[in-house]
Amino acid sequence: MSIKDNLQSVKNNIAEAIERSGRNPEDVTLIAVSKTKPVSMIQEVYDLGIRDFGENKVQELVDKYDKLPRDIRWHLIGHLQTNKVKYVIDKAYLIHSVDSVKLAREISKEAVKRSLNVNILIEVNVSGEESKFGVSPDRLIETVEEIAALPGIYIKGLMTVAPYVVDSEQNREFFAQIMKFTVDIMQKNIDNVSMDFISMGMSGDYKVAIEEGATYIRVGTSIFGERNYNIL
Ligand SMILES: *Cc1c(COP(=O)(O)O)cnc(C)c1O
């Protein structure tokens, strides 16, 4: 299958999931996850109309940012180290992976220094897997409150990476929990917090994620094909 066919089939699946769940098509945005993929492939997807791209490494995002059209919205979806914040803070449209107060403090410091307002999501480790980054659910509210008090930083919602599963139905409960946390936080009316976005769902489970309320889905393999980390 070509990238064009892949993208069309993802779009069809998205439309069907939106239809099934009675949601508004405008509320779901596809992020094409382009990590490890060359600029030429990203340009191809761009030419097919996609403007949101996701990268998990700062260096790779910054390199591609310089080589591709300026109206791309770059989403940083991978773990961010505090010492790399300064390189990406003015290039990422949204940082999905804020997983500690320490990281948020660094983002805030850099934002104030450069008079930026930085939009972030809080990553939640909803499955409790040890290999995963993210705030644990029992510390979520206090973490949100602490980060929301920092200058230059706006919490726009939550993000999660669900476990790798063969049957995507197994992740439905995790997505439903993220939706519940979103509602809980919204009801607290915290300053500088607007729960506009829920970033969840990848190639294996984005249909279920949409049914459970995802506003951003992050799809790599189903658009670009398998990744080969060896060639990099
Ligand atoms: C790589 C990655 C994705 C995309 O995964 P696919 O299974 O290829 O769709 C989504 N989210 C994050 C955080 C990733 O690192």
Give a verbal description of the structure.
- This protein has 232 residues and is an alpha/beta fold.
- The protein has a single domain, classed as TIM Barrel.
- 39% of the residues lie in helices and 18% in strands.
- It contains nine helices and eight strands.
- It has helices spanning 3-21, 39-47, 58-67, 85-88, 101-113, 140-148, 172-187, 206-211, 221-224; strands spanning 29-33, 52-55, 73-76, 94-98, 118-123, 153-159, 193-199, 216-219.
- The chain has an eight-stranded parallel beta sheet with strand order 7-6-5-4-3-2-1-8.
- Helix 2 links the parallel strand 1 and strand 2 (52-55).
- It is globular and about 45 Å long.
- The model has no long low-confidence stretch (mean pLDDT 97).
- It binds pyridoxal-5'-phosphate.
- Residues 33, 35, 56, 77-78, 161, 202-204, 218-222 line the site of pyridoxal-5'-phosphate.
